[in-house]
Specification:
Blueprint (H helix, E strand, L loop, with lengths): L1 H5 L4 H24 L4 H22 L7 H19 L7 H22 L1 H18 L3 H7 L3 E6 L4 H4 L3 E2 L14 H12 L7 E5 L13 H10 E7 L2 E6 L9 E8 L4 E3 L7 E8 L4 H9 L5 E8 L7 E3 L8 E4 L5 H6 L8 E9 L9 E9 L9 H6 L12 E3 L5 E4 L2 E5 L4 E6 L4 E10 L2 H4 L6 E8 L6 E8 L11 E6 L8 E7 L11 E10 L16 E3 L3 E5 L4 E5 L3 E6 L6 E8 L13 E8 L6 E8 L11 E6 L8 E8 L10 E8 L1
Parallel strand pairs: 1-2, 1-3
Antiparallel strand pairs: 3-5, 4-5, 6-13, 7-12, 8-11, 8-13, 9-10, 9-12, 14-17, 15-16, 16-23, 17-22, 18-21, 18-23, 19-20, 19-22, 24-27, 25-26, 26-33, 27-32, 28-31, 28-33, 29-30, 29-32
Length: about 675
């Protein structure tokens, strides 16, 4: 203002002062509307702006008629701003030292960027690859593929990190950005339009400034609930898929009430298949509107009372975001609460609430709330919502484990990656349902374990457990980050599973290793993925055809060092689906040598090949009995070639192993190799 008055006849100077005034007001609003660390942005801007006005007014274009006191006055203003920048009561000289240190560090950092751009680029690429690894959503990528997806929450960067096809709604980039009715309506209309909306939504509910969560893009949230359905959970994210012919039901008006700050408001009861919605009116007084223009409106908070609410006190309400009905009950605080909306579970019940503000005089007396009801989203068949909700908190695996030992093992964050602490000795156990084919997991050491400690490492083990059988070790690796630098950071391993029976168990174990020394064994596991699906040829390395069904207590690959045998201890079977054109079957088979030498006591194994035509009993094609204890010709590897009878597409060829005449299977180490179905 001083500069503008002094140069009121100079249009150029007036324009410069007006620009600086506008910039200053924007930075003022930025810093003090946020009212946190952003305030320092304004405090740093102010002396810069004042200095530039001073230079423009009195140095670059000096007015020789200006009194010296005026120029001195401007200099005093700038000096006061510069001094108070560093002498704020809450910071003292600490912030000044921090700024000097920060400036020197950033200057050196930028010089290195200019002098060594390729080295900086390589470092940034490594950091990016690390973030891609941390936020890898393999199951989501496999489901979505190249179809379109949007994000609901605040962590939308996970979309490009997974190279998904981002198709954002008009006001995206964080659900809190849709801060007024216009933006919320634009987003709602986008999701309601089947031609424009994305095919999927990745959802991880979160908010800023401790707000009531459902007011953030609240109209789009209601469209999401009725136009999409959850299909899987991964690392705390829910994947929603668009449903055909979306139709958001109309909200049914219940009642309108006049309310006041500090008053306890009882909420109406809605049916078990309904949700409670509410819209609020917070008319401002003249002084309140003036304050909102120059500074910001006083914050409004809501205290919730009910059953099961985790954080009921002081939830912030933004008037412009609640002028249309938003979801109020059941109370939604995280993804798990969202999942239960698709069931008949009551959820977190809201009974009453209280509104409060530090400056009630900024608002008129006629505050009001209107209540509405809306049907819950339709329940989803064949969806285990309880399991889905559990994944909202257990984000380190795609299948909930049966047990974790020790039970007090906690989950922590390492460089932004949530991990399950599993200090040796420990284990995570899953009960299998029979269609698991591969186990992928990430593991490592907490950095302090090797930066400060001197442990001897941890052995990570994966083993398969069948009831009544000894455990089968599928994977073992010693990680010793103290002595091997390449053992530090996240390690990832893939374990191919043999055909498994429903009810078997898979265990991921941390073992203290040599001498049982557990000092500094600060190991962890995370991103544990049990992959399901049909069998693959990798599980049958010497077969040319993948079976559709496998049965047997021991049915897995044995690597002898020189070759890979498929063990099929009796009673066991392999079933192959035929396409109608097969004419011959060739395979090699036998009993492991130790079963009949060095005191081995096998009574033999019968190999049977059967053709099972659709709707008919099995027809035996060939049977070969091996009795190696008494028949020398039955020792070693055998071979059979069979001409197949005529058959139709969809018929099955079954290879079975049966125990010998005594029915004793203890030594029946039967195997197959080099199976060729032509």
């Amino acid at each position: 203002g001083w500069g503008a008055w002094h140069h009121r006849r100079d249009l150029t100077a007036l324009g410069a002062c007006a620009l600086f005034a506008g910039y200053t007001f924007v930075k003022w609003k930025h810093g003090y509307v946020r009212a946190d660390g952003h305030i320092f942005i304004f405090l740093q801007y102010a002396p810069v702006a004042a200095s530039l006005v001073y230079l423009q007014s009195f140095v670059v274009n000096p007015d020789p008629t200006s009194p010296r006191v005026r120029r001195l006055g401007w200099g005093l203003i700038v000096a006061v701003l510069l001094v108070t920048q560093f002498l704020q009561p809450s910071q003292g000289l600490t912030r000044m030292g921090w700024l000097v240190d920060y400036a020197s560090h950033q200057t050196g950092h930028r010089l290195r960027q200019v002098m060594q751009p390729m080295a900086v680029k390589e470092r940034l690429d490594r950091e990016l690859e690390g973030q891609i690894d941390i936020h890898d959503l393999a199951l989501t990528r496999r489901e979505v593929q190249d179809r379109t997806i949007d994000f609901f929450g605040v962590e939308h960067g996970v979309i490009p990190l997974n190279r998904l096809t981002y198709h954002p709604r008009p006001m995206s980039g964080g659900s809190f950005n849709a801060y007024n009715p216009y933006l919320q309506e634009r987003n709602r209309a986008f999701l309601a339009d089947p031609a424009r909306r994305p095919d999927y939504f990745l959802v991880k509910l979160a908010t800023v400034d401790y707000r009531l969560m459902t007011q953030d893009d609240g109209q789009a949230l209601l469209e999401l609930l009725h136009g999409y359905r959850p299909i899987l959970a991964e690392q705390g994210y829910f994947l929603f898929q668009a449903t055909p012919n979306p139709s958001r039901p109309e909200a049914r008006f219940i009642e309108r009430r006049e309310v006041a700050f500090g008053e306890t408001v009882e909420v109406p009861t809605v049916g078990p298949d309904e949700m409670l919605l509410a819209r609020f009116e917070f008319p401002a007084t003249f002084l309140g509107r003036l304050r909102a223009l120059l500074y910001k409106a006083p914050l409004i908070f809501m205290d919730l009372q009910g059953e099961g609410i985790d954080e009921p006190a002081g939830r912030r309400i933004v008037p412009s975001m609640t002028s249309d009905p938003v979801l109020l009950g059941p109370v939604i605080e995280d993804n798990a609460d969202l999942a239960y909306l698709y069931t008949d579970t009551p959820g977190k019940r809201l009974d009453r609430f209280t509104l409060s503000t530090s400056q009630p005089g900024a608002y008129a007396r006629n505050l009001a709330v209107e209540f509405f009801s809306m049907p819950r989203p339709s329940q989803i068949e064949n969806l285990d919502v309880a399991e889905l909700a559990a994944f909202a908190t257990f984000r380190v695996a795609n299948v909930l484990p049966e047990s974790i030992s020790p039970p007090e093992a906690r989950r922590i964050s390492i460089d932004g990656l949530e991990v399950q602490s599993l200090h040796a000795p420990g284990e995570v156990v899953w009960q299998l349902q029979g269609d698991e084919r591969e186990f992928v997991f990430t593991y490592g050491f907490e950095p302090r374990g090797y930066e400060e400690g001197d442990g001897n490492g941890v052995v990570f083990i994966v083993e398969l457990r069948n009831e009544g059988q000894p455990p089968v070790r599928l994977f073992s690796r010693l990680l010793d980050p103290v002595r091997h630098a390449d053992h530090r950071g996240n390690q990832t391993s893939r374990v191919l599973l043999p055909p498994v029976r429903a009810g078997a168990r898979l265990a991921l174990i941390t073992d203290p290793g040599e001498y049982g020394d557990t000092a500094w064994d600060w190991s962890y596991v995370t991103k544990m993925l049990l992959k399901r699906g049909p069998f693959s040829l990798r599980q049958f390395p010497t077969f040319n055809r993948v079976p559709v069904a496998v049965d047997g207590e021991v049915a897995s690959v044995l690597d002898t060092g020189s070759e890979q045998l498929f063990m099929l201890h009796p009673p066991g079977s392999l079933s192959f689906r035929l396409n109608g054109t097969e004419s011959s079957l060739t395979f090699e088979f036998g009993i492991m040598e130790g079963a009949y030498t060095n005191n081995g006591q096998t009574d033999g194994v019968d190999y049977i090949v059967e053709l099972v035509r659709t709707g008919q009993p099995a027809v035996e094609i060939v049977r070969r009995a091996l009795r190696p204890l008494g028949v020398a010709a039955d020792r070693g590897r055998q071979q059979v070639t069979i001409a197949l009878p005529t058959h139709a597409p969809g018929d099955h060829l079954v290879i079975r192993t049966d125990p010998g005449p005594q029915g004793n299977t203890s030594w029946d180490w039967a195997y197959l190799i080099n199976l060729n179905l032509q």
